[in-house]
Amino acid sequence: MSPVVAGDARDLFVAVASAAAALTGLLFVAMSVTPRSPGSRPRSVIHQVRSAAALLSFTNALGISLFSLVPNNNAGYPSIGFGIVGTLFTLASIRSLLADASARHRFLGQVTLIGGLLAVFIIEIVDGLELRANPAHHSALDTIANLTIVSMLLGVARAWEFVGDRDTGIWSSIAVLATGREHPLTVPGDEEAEAGSPEGADQRD
After folding, report:
1. Are the C-beta atoms of 64 and 20 separated by less than 8 Å?
2. Would you say residue 190 lies in a domain?
């Protein structure tokens, strides 16, 4: 029995691991059944970042929970490891968004996602270090357990956007309510292709 994760905390990590594993499987199913035409362009950078963020969020919760359940494991170590990986992924996502001309002007719309991910991963690192130094630090363990749940919720939100091909962020939703216009996660160049098609001409008329 692990000296850190025991009792109710152990039961919680078991539940989180089960839920994260199921959600990860469903995400792969959703990715495999998402319709794509044979000659279609690659998905936009924003779409790729958000789908990768969904997978990372589920993997983060799953990995921390499973490693924490291993007997004699200190939950601080997996929290630190996954926190560092997640932080590096988020920074790489920022670079990818800023480097892509078509995604750069929509960068502010991704601030909520980026800020949420960074907050989760940085707090994981901080509480993981505290738990590594003091295995009896129950407050740090409780925070890490809560962060695994938050991570799954972030993954669910990102996965919904991936399946629906819609930007469902807070600011985008407010913009839709204010303007009545949807914000799809389109592929760069699709707008021009649509404008040049007969259907696009009919819409402009």
Report:
1. no
2. no
